[in-house]
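FAQ

Q: What does a record look like?
A: Structure on top, sequence underneath. For example:
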């Protein structure tokens, strides 16, 4: 498998979740209440899978490698835009988690805030994924040697392996401190 095919496979799962988030927004509006367990599943997916697994592969491995190269300014600019999208997604998830706490504490505005933040992600991800798949990944191949491409797949796999241990280490620590 090519390195970008792996990233594109991950996009398909993110897209599936984005579709479910969209459905969830409609459900919240209909019932005028938040399903906390569903919000927890969504934020865990976005934090662990979209951010720490997928976007970290892009930022810490792919973008990093490309930034070391003699790439055109316009391409370097695209990397900045993609990183800013990732940052926006991370900040949005932090806001949802904080609004969730306020919702539990009885804040009336939190329901609307959660809807707005979820909508922002539903809007962001399809555009972001299209940008990466239509232009960015394919152009990346021009700047990488085949050795670098296969090395990148090894680095992706290593990141996946480490992530599962880190994730459950954190679960144990959280439970211990709760
Ligand atoms: Fe990305
Ligand atoms: Fe991506």
């Amino acid at each position: 498998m090519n390195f970008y095919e792996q990233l594109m496979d991950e996009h398909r799962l993110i897209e599936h979740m984005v579709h479910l988030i969209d459905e969830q927004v409609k459900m919240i509006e209909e019932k005028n209440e938040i399903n906390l367990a569903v919000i927890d599943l969504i934020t865990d997916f976005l934090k662990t899978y979209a951010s720490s697994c997928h976007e970290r592969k892009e930022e810490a491995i792919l973008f990093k490698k490309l930034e070391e190269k003699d790439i055109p300014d316009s391409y370097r600019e695209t990397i900045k835009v993609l990183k800013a999208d990732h940052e926006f997604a991370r900040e949005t998830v932090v806001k949802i988690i904080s609004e969730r706490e306020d919702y539990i504490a009885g804040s009336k505005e939190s329901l609307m805030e959660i809807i707005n933040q979820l909508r922002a992600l539903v809007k962001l991800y399809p555009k972001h994924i299209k940008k990466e798949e239509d232009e960015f990944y394919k152009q990346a191949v021009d700047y990488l040697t085949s050795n670098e491409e296969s090395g990148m797949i090894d680095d992706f796999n290593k990141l996946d392996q480490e992530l599962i241990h880190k994730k459950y280490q954190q679960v144990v620590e959280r439970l211990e401190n709760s």
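Q: Is there anything notable about this one?
A: The chain has one domain: 3-172.
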